[in-house]
Amino acid sequence: MTAFDQLERQLREATVARRRRRFSRPLAVLALAAACVAAFLVVEAGGPRQRDDEREATAPMVPFLAPDPDKIVYVHATTVTIRPGGLRDVLVTEEWHRGRETHRIVSGTNADGSIAALDHVIDEHGTMRQIGADKPAGAKPEAEITGDYRVYHSRPRSGDEATDDATNVIATEQAGFLAGFRKGIAHGRLDPREDLTFAGRPARRYHVGPDPARTGPHSPDQSFFVDRDTGAPLGFVSTLQLNPDEAPMTSTQTVDSLQLLDPTPANLARLRTLTFKRR
Amino acid sequence: MTDDELLAAAVAGDGDAFAAFYRRHSALVIGYLRRRVPEPELALDLAAETFAAALLGVRRYRPGGLAVAWLLAIAQNKLLESLRRGRVEAAARRKLRLEPVVYDDADLAAVEERAAAGAAQLSRLLAELPGDQREAVLARVVDEREYTEIAAALDCSPQVVRQRVSRGLRTLRTRLEDRA
Asked: Which of residues 58-87 of B touch A (CB under 8 A)?
């Protein structure tokens, strides 16, 4: 048997095995895939590094990007994605984050107007508790939403197809929403234009071009915008060329609200408690 | 079966379908990689990782595209990743729990044969395209140049280059399917 035959046999067997495993965990994979997309939109930022002299000259956006570690960072953001062909998705993210603890609610509008939503809390040890739910359009208050409850661990377990996804999602969310901006600014190039605005605010733009080492179809072009006066993250625009012969997919995320909350019992409870109810 | 049909069947768990897809395009992928790396064993290793990554991402393949272009884009990513890291990653193979492929001198000689066959296959396909489409597809898909750069070289707008690439890929797809 040649090396080519060996590879062919292994690919054949892996195809069948993957199908079998996928059937065993469909809901988990779907839920995590949605979370992965949300995480990717926020954190993915490779590309050419900014030179040290450029970074020094443009870096003083400290309060929002390196907040007091005792505070809880609360973010409400809306991401609008236009796909090739004009399909439009809206994703709303609400996050409470402190240290390695995160509570995030992500909801996206389906084509029929219903809303698919994920509510998950990650503790400092990397265990994620999640409730996934569909709620009809014009839904009831979030506290009344019920859904399926699952627990994911960040530590890999052999034989679990979803483990890598879970590990990635948990690591990303433990880093917090602002990590994406920190990375974008550290790796990006400052746009010298002084007249830029984003979401109606005077803005500075940090551009992270497609990673030259990943010039295939999965390397996004990203622009991170921060408030020119306060340094507060305003949002970002990401374009991803999926196929060379069609329009790129464009995602625009706008930070609707960003607050630093005191660690009061009520705020800590918000950080550590799922909003949705178990079905 | 067409590539789209094979990949759809692979998504449904048909191992023979993905094996057939591999057999159909392994020479092309090896030919593409062998032109860009100094050693045949490196081309073989990258090809294995390319097909493993293709299988992992097969659900993301959109029917109606050109599967060969999709596959070559994955090969390109794997190649660039290996250049950047100084080694061939086996992440996709690990995920699929594939064992390392053991090869001997005969296999390495076969890599060279397949590479030549793959290069010839690509050349034949491209030769059948109208000249303007061939130039555009070569520059964009094979040489991976930017649209603006190609437009400057061909003395036309980037939009025109996009149209030529798009039409060229469509033509290639039709011809590949006719032969399948």
From this structure: 62, 65, 69-70, 73-74, 76-77, 80-81, 83-84
Instruction: Report pTM.
Output: 0.50
Buried b (16+ CB within 10 A) or exposed e, A14-45: bbeebeeeeeeeeebbebbebbbbbbbbbbbb
B48 and A244 in contact by Cβ < 8 A?
no
Residue in B55, B104, B166 closest to A14 by CB = B55
Query: Chain B closest CA to A264's CA: distance in Å?
Result: 43
Reported ipTM: the value is 0.75
Q: Does B137 touch chain A (CB under 8 A)?
A: no
Residue B25, C-beta contacts closer than 8 angstroms, at least 6 positions apart? B67, B68, B71
Question: Smallest Cβ distance to A213: which of B84, B110, B162?
Answer: B84
CB contact under 8 A, A214 and B10: no
- The whole-angstrom distance between B93's CA and the closest CA on chain A is 9
Quick one: angle between helices A3-24 and A26-43, nearest 10? 100
User: One digit per residue, pLDDT tens: chain A, 279 residues?
Assistant: 788 888 888 888 888 877 665 543 433 433 443 443 333 333 333 333 333 333 333 333 445 677 778 889 999 999 888 877 777 888 889 999 999 899 999 888 765 666 788 898 999 888 888 888 876 666 666 667 788 888 877 765 544 444 556 777 788 888 888 888 888 887 788 888 888 999 999 999 999 887 666 544 456 788 999 988 888 899 999 887 766 677 788 889 999 999 989 999 999 999 999 998 887
Positive or negative, the CA dihedral A30, A174, A64, A192 is negative
